[in-house]
Amino acid sequence: MKAYSIAFALFLLTLTGCTATPVKNKIVAEVKIPQLNYNKALFEPVEIPDQKGLYALTETQKKEFLDYYYDPANQGMRGIKRLYQYMDRSLDQFSYHGATLQANDALNQMSGNCLTLAIVTTALAKLVDLDISYEKVNSAPIYHRHRNLMTLSYHVRTHLHDNESIKREDGLEFIKRKIVIDYFPNSANVAGKRVPEEDFVALFYNNLAGDALVAEDYPLALSLLNKALSISPQNPSSLNSLAVLFKQSGDLAQAEKIYRYAMEHSSGSVNLLSNYSLLLEEQGRDQEALALQEKIDGIEDDNPYRWFDLANEFYDRKQYYRAIKYYSRAIEVGPYLHEMHFGLAKAYHAIGHSRKAKAAMEQALSWTYVPEEQHIYQAKLSSFGPVSRDSVKPQE
């Protein structure tokens, strides 16, 4: 289920615009984003998978799918339903693990992560001209530590769009049906932003680069990230990975240059700014790091777990007011996630705001349906005792 994020020490490295409204009678100049200049030849280039082969299938794989898709017995189903049924039928023995594979390799090996499954879905959809789009899914993060790197996984899901439109009864609009394929459904998942196709393809190379960074194969990682950025130059996940690569290689100046470019010319991310902040802290540039921390508040990140992780970090540092700020941001995005309310309750309790702590704990209890968690929250709620007038403590 891996769409990579890598952290350096406490760094997080993520792998996976804006629109302008036309103004009448005015000429709007197109803003050209400068290219990032970095040392693409820091290491000798290494052979990497060809983009053209991403969705390539063997003749046998094509025939098996097309025979099913065009079987007269299946013609009563709409095209998107036939593709969905085929995947459901043929992938029942699929082994879900962390490898990111091209479509034909995934079907040969019957294994891969959620990005791999989305690639397989795309390959099949292209055979029969079905439209497809992608959506990021924000779920409880899965962390893996690898010496001084930490990876964070999230997943994507695909939307299959019907080519045949349906006319509404009022005759005014056509609506296309769609099927959403979520390879790892979970009630705690939060729908994220749409993933443009160029970012989806870049994510394939970014994932492989993450594996290469973990293995300390820096020439391979650089070749993969060069490719990812040639496809989606302002992708914050790829830029973040590239900065970590240069930091790992000892070129701190180049790493900082990449972070600055990403801040100015990409949508940014909580992970990216956190990594940059840590880079500054490690150089003793505490004031700059603190100023950068303030910029995180302006990031529009639709992943509640990003804010939850940041809140936990400040809670562990006993910076409870900052923790409250980020627990609240997490709740804004994922109000039905009980652990977000529990975190907020702990932070309020730590500063003596018993009324708010109890209210937050009641919210946590109302959003959990697992008996074990309910017992824990009920015990915590009881431990708060009678509600007293909230004490006031100075801001940190």
Short description:
It is built from 15 helices and 7 strands. The chain has helices spanning about 60-70, 80-90, 105-110, 115-125, 195-215, 220-230, 235-250, 250-265, 270-280, 285-295, 305-315, 320-335, 340-350, 355-365, 370-385, and strands at about 5-10, 95, 110, 130-145, 150-165, 175-180, 190-195.
Helix share bin: 40-55%
Annotation field: number of helices: 15
What can be said about the biggest beta sheet? 5 strands, antiparallel
Low-confidence stretches: 4-29, 387-396
* First-last Cα distance: 39 Å
- Arithmetic mean of pLDDT: 81
Strand portion, in percent?
Answer: 5-15%
Radius of gyration: 24 Å
Oligomer: single chain
What's the count of strands? 7
Give the SSE order as H and E letters. EHHEHEHEEEEHHHHHHHHHHH
Structural class, by secondary structure, is: alpha+beta
Q: Characterize the overall form.
A: globular
Explain how this protein is built.
It is built from 15 helices and 7 strands. Strands 1, 4, 5, 6 and 7 form a 5-stranded antiparallel beta sheet that branches. The protein starts with 5 loop residues before the first strand and ends in a 13-residue tail after the last helix. The C terminus is likely disordered.
